[in-house]
Amino acid sequence: MAVRKRLGPTGTAAEVARAAGIKPDEGRVTLSQVDRRRTQLWSVSLFVIVALTVAVALYWLAYDLLPASLQLASASSYVIGVLILGLVLSFVLYVIDKESRLRTVAHMLIEERVLSSALSNRLSEISALSEVGKAINTTLDLTDVLNLILSSALELLGGTEGSIMLLEEDGEHLQVVSYHGPKVETVMKGRAKVGTGISGTVAQSRQPMLIQGDRVQKGRGHPERGISSAMSVPLVRNDELLGVLNLNDTERQRIFTEQDLNALGLFAEHAAIAIGNASIFEKERETVARLEELDQLKSDFVASVSHELKTPLTAIIGAAKTVSRKGREMDPEHHAQFMEMIERQGGRLLRLVEDVLTTSQIESGRPMKRVLVDLKAAANEVIQELVQTKSGEGRTVELRAEPDKPQIWGDLIALQQVMTNLIENSLKYSDEPSRVIVTVSETPEEGLLEVADEGVGISEEGLQVIFERFHQVDSSSTRKVGGFGLGLFIVKQLVDAHGGDIGVKSAEGKGTIFTVRLPKRAADRGKLNSDVD
Amino acid sequence: MSTDARKILIADDEPALRSLLKTNLSFEGFETLTAANGEEALRVIREEAPDVVLLDVMMPVMDGLQVLEELSKGENRQTRVILVTAKASSEAQLQGWELGCDEYLTKPFDLDVMIDRIAEVTGRDDSQTETRRREAIENLREEASP
Fold it and tell me: How sure is the predictor about A1, in pLDDT bands with cuts at 50, 70 and 90?
């Protein structure tokens, strides 16, 4: 539009050209046509000037020989002179007019060419961006998408190398994640500090930066890397800085312009979207992996439950069968032995079932009942119960209280469950004979429960997982002890519900010490479940 | 085989089950030995050469299948092996038979069936043992393939 306005009402290049005496070829005028026409015009003008000069010279030389009627000062010679002068004048005017029209046409053609080249640039920009957009929607691998963005930007905008850097978790450094160019090995290891260098400055200001030759010479950029022109734009999504997209030219072939910088900004927007999508996808994948792991744990749990239940069931069914088969001929001693076996294995079965129930209760959240708990009395009850069923095999449990009567506010049943599970666990993993020492104490802020054993201890790897649901440190078929792997999970959940914490120290072969710290007043969480997901 | 009382080794890490089986087998007139883990079981089998071992699979130190594998390595195994385990899946049973067990009982077991099986395995000669093992494996494979 701007071009047409400047030319006024003269119309399109073709119309102007027609007026200038050029026949448009299929409606189009080319610059060479205009050039040819101008050459013709100038040749004709030159010819006319030369012809006139020759004519004047001849006239001058042959003046004396001419008849009087053709000599100056005669009436007819005036007429001829005026005529010739008029011809010459109109020829000059004609030439000037043609020339000006031809110049206009040439100008218009050049402007048209510039416009159409800008248009085709814009088209390749759009098609490159649409390629990138398609890739974002179809490719799930972030590295692939970023590589494509980078190569498209380089292809479209020129430059010899480009890189995408992402902000590290510390928020202080940028790490190169994608690079195209000749120095892959050095650059891919590259890292920049936010606030320094081109990328660092862009990351800090979140403003695009364009660096042309003179600024490079003034010390901007990396003269040692021979960068002659560079652009850098921030990658931002939801007001959050993700990284930086850089293009450099090291061959002095290309000086980036503002337009290039704007185009690079469009690529940066796509890159930011891709990074955002990838992080959503990554989170989804993590969730799925976590669910799969939980699912696996649950299947293992079911297998383990069925095995664990079968052992006491086998003993109960077997003992009952023995009594019924041999009832009459059986001596009282054996009879009593089998009856006791049924009772004890029944109790074991019950505890296994209760563990499962407690876990599901914790998961659904039982309301917490807070009372003043005498830790020593509570522990004593638990120990008495356990001693009857467990420690007849050379294992003893010792209770120490400092001061004599440590007290805290908490849920009595939950706290006794914590004690039971910890002491039972210690007994389970102790060889006979050995002892378990239970210590209860208090400070002005906390109540403490410590359960120390001389058992097999827990390995480093074991310590990582002992409080997780369904985990038993040794789940191999040669494991030493049974159980569902719920005991310590339950302990952890109950302690958490009280706002306390549990720690463990262990040395393999030497023993394990569990330390539970409970606030004097249990945190009012209302329910006996914490962050069970 | 001698007319002496059959010698049975009970290998199980669960004391209640050891005592249950020991008492019952004594009632039936068998001589009983016990082992609380796989390693112990292997030692007793080598030293005492019992006629039958009732072998649990999930045991500490060395599991029942490892014991069976060790036994099957030696030539002319005299001791018959009855696996007694909570592992009831066809895959687990197939694995047991392929490692060379003579019978496979799942927990909870029926004492009458167990006593019958003990009589059966000790009554078989080598070719009968082979036949029984082959048939069991074929049946389990059929079960496994749809």
Answer: very low
Condensed to tens digits (0 to 9), the pLDDT of residues A239-256 reads 889 999 999 888 777 788
C-alpha A246/C-alpha A144 separation (Å) is 17
Residue type, B119: A
CB contact under 8 A, A479 and B58: yes
Residue A479 has pLDDT above 60, yes or no: no
Kindly write down the DSSP assignment for every residue of A302-325, as one continuous string: HHHHHHHHHHHHHHHHHHHHHHHH
Chain B partners within 8 Å of A317 (Cβ): 108
B87 touches A: beta carbon within 8 Å: yes
Instruction: Give the ranges where A62-190 is alpha helix by DSSP (H).
Output: 75-138, 142-157, 184-188
Which CA distances in Å does B122 have to A316, B72, B127?
28, 17, 13
First to last CA, chain A: 65
Mutate to test the interface with A, among B10, B21, B24, B57 (most CBs of A within 10 A): B24
CA dihedral over A287, A290, A296, A297, signed as positive or negative: negative
The two tokens of residue B127 are 């070719």
Tokens linked to A138: 């179809």
Mean pLDDT of the region A7-30: 68
User: Which two three-digit tokens encode residue A517?
Assistant: 């710290």
Handedness of CA A454, A455, A459, A462 (dihedral sign): negative
For residue A372, give every residue at least 6 positions away whose Cβ sits within 8 Å of its Cβ, in sequence order, or none. A407, A408, A409
CA–CA dist B9, B14 (Å, integer) = 14
Three-class DSSP category at A330: coil
| Closest residue in chain B to residue A326, using alpha carbons only | B27
Of A322, A477, A478, the CB nearest to B20: A322
Q: Please tell me the total number of residues recorded for chain B in this structure.
A: 146
Please tell me the distance from the alpha carbon of residue A272 to that of residue A339, in angstroms, as a whole number: 73
3-state DSSP call for residue A8?
Answer: helix
ipTM score: 0.88
Q: What percent of chain A has pLDDT over 90?
A: 17
Test B58 with A307 for CB contact under 8 angstroms. Answer: yes
Q: Under an 8 A CB cutoff, do B108 and A310 touch?
A: yes
Lowest-confidence segment of A60-74, A139-153, A465-479, B122-136 by average pLDDT: A465-479
Q: Let me know: does A379 contact A399? Beta carbons within 8 Å.
A: yes
* Chain A / chain B CB contacts < 8 angstroms: 71
Residues 320-339 of A with CB under 8 A from B: 321-322, 325-326, 334, 337-338
Closest C-alpha among A523, A381, A368, A516 to residue A442: A516
Q: Is the pTM of this model over 0.80?
A: no
From A360's Cα to the closest Cα of chain B, the distance in A is 25
Whether the predicted pLDDT of A215 surpasses 70: no
